[in-house]
Amino acid sequence: MNELKPIREIKGATSADLTEELLTGQEPLVLRGLAADWPFVKAGRKSAADARAYLKGLYNGTEVIVSYAGPEAGGKPFYKDDMSGLNFDYKRIKLDMFLDLLESHEADEKPPFFYVGSTTIGDCLPGFGEQNSIPLGDRDCIESIWIGNRTHIAAHYDLADNVACVAAGKRRFTLFPPDQLPNLYVGPLDFTPAGQPVSMVDLHNPAFDRFPRFRDALAVAQVAELEAGDAIFIPSMWWHAVDGLAAFNVLVNYWWRQSPSYMGPANNALQLALLAIRDLPADQKKIWQQIFNHYVFENTEETTAHIPERGRGVLGPMTDDNARRIRAFLLNGLNR
């Protein structure tokens, strides 16, 4: 592959760099050193053993979900070759046992794959967030921790905006703009390795004969390698593949949405459109495309100006009450 474009970065980043312009922006940004003063980062820079001891000192005994597979998975949680299932399994264990398991394979040349993904920090590590945090204003963030060994996570998107901090180890982020969907050869929407649809292309060994348009995706891809203490801002809907490059890696991330929670995830609308619109005759689909443009994608004040405010119903401004009204309407229709 050709050398990829580096992600724009700020060196020596501080909380002052977390401006509203940045956090509502549509371009990724690396924030070098943003979490460098975290006590956990300092522990991990001493050794992986110190990092594990730090986590064990805060652990409250709650079990965590571990993804695991043998060395043959190559550290990549993905589908089986025939798509009959996934190439890894799950189990619940104590976090301290998981950390010991990672340590026992730390020196393996080809270790098994072990990964604790997207675990809410407050559920198992009370106090960690108070000791290690970044200021994100009044945003209602989900704070998660990810722990594992050398891993290769396929390109996927998140609905939320994201600031991810490498707290121990080293990670590589490869990002693709949202408009690269057709060039990423995305897998199933309802059968996924971890909840979000993923690119079927092996980033490190792309089969261009099978996925020729992936060359176009690589032409606009951006990449960065982050050390412990570095962070990255990934805007909503940007595709990102993440590689854990050390024998022990810890990531802490903050997710938030720029829309009220009562609006619900937009992918619900996609599922409904697949159910009700995708397989209509072509001429009817064009009509519905015009309707969606009119009411959703190109709506303006003029869209409903001819209707008195009190009579606009679900066409009025989206509020908690309006969202409840729409959900009730949908549930009634789907339950027929």
Task: Describe the fold and architecture.
This protein has 336 residues and is an alpha+beta fold. The protein has two domains: 254 residues, Cupin (Jelly Rolls); 73 residues, no CATH class. It has a nine-stranded mixed sheet. Strands 1-11-10-13-8 form a five-stranded mixed sheet, with helices on one face. It comes from Kordiimonas lacus.
Topology of helices and strands:
Blueprint: E1 5-6, E2 9-10, H1 20-23, E3 29-31, H2 39-46, H3 48-58, E4 63-69, E5 89-94, H4 95-104, E6 113-120, H5 121-124, H6 128-131, E7 142-148, E8 151-156, E9 161-168, E10 170-176, H7 214-220, E11 222-227, E12 231-234, E13 239-244, E14 249-256, H8 267-276, H9 282-297, H10 320-334
Parallel strand pairs: 1-11, 2-3
Antiparallel strand pairs: 3-12, 4-5, 4-6, 6-7, 7-14, 8-13, 9-12, 9-14, 10-11, 10-13
Helix pairs in contact: 2-3, 3-4
The CATH architecture of the largest domain would be Sandwich
Radius of gyration: 22 Å
Outline type? globular
Number of domains: 2
Determine and state the CATH class of the largest domain: Mainly Beta
SS elements, strand count: 14
The run of helices and strands is EEHEHHEEHEHHEEEEHEEEEHHH
> Helix count, per DSSP?
10
Q: Which spans of ≥5 residues are poorly predicted at pLDDT below 50?
A: none
Structural class computed from helices and strand pairing: alpha+beta
CATH fold type of the largest domain: Jelly Rolls
Major beta sheet, strand line-up = 2-3-12-9-14-7-6-4-5
> Oligomeric status of the shown chains?
single chain
Relevant CATH superfamily of the largest domain: Cupin
